[in-house]
Give the backbone structure.
Amino acid sequence: MNHLHPAVSAALATSGIPHSIVRHADLGVPVSGPGDVAAACGLEIGQITKTLLLCARDGRTFVVVTPVLDRLPLRNLAAELKAGRLSLASLDTLSQVTGYPPAGVSPLGLPAGPRVLVAAGLLAWREILVGGGAPGVEVRLAAADLVAVSAAEVMDINPAVDETRAKGSLE
């Protein structure tokens, strides 16, 4: 599938926010990772995101949007969210909760339930790329618009990385 997921299309249409669709197949270069996508789109790697589904022991779920190369400090995040312990969702849980396939998860158009968290560091960028609900399809939009459309909370998910990046010493 090389098209936006219908739920993502509906969320974008309803919101009316400016955006563009990036299809890996249309980039004109082989795509073997996020660096290829960033280079082809004229973006920095920090503007490419990953969307992860985390599960707490008490049954709560969290959709976390963070720069693709950032590692999530799960213990710190669990403490901040008062979640006890967090783990990455299984592929089955991921599909059941989000309605999206693995490698195509989007923070847009999610069903009610998961709490959406966006890494504060992403707001430093004018535009970012997020998943389009299908593998190989991304949505390019303003980070602030993502927060608004997804009803996300902005959180210092990885404050040590954000602070280093702000000082310009992180490649």
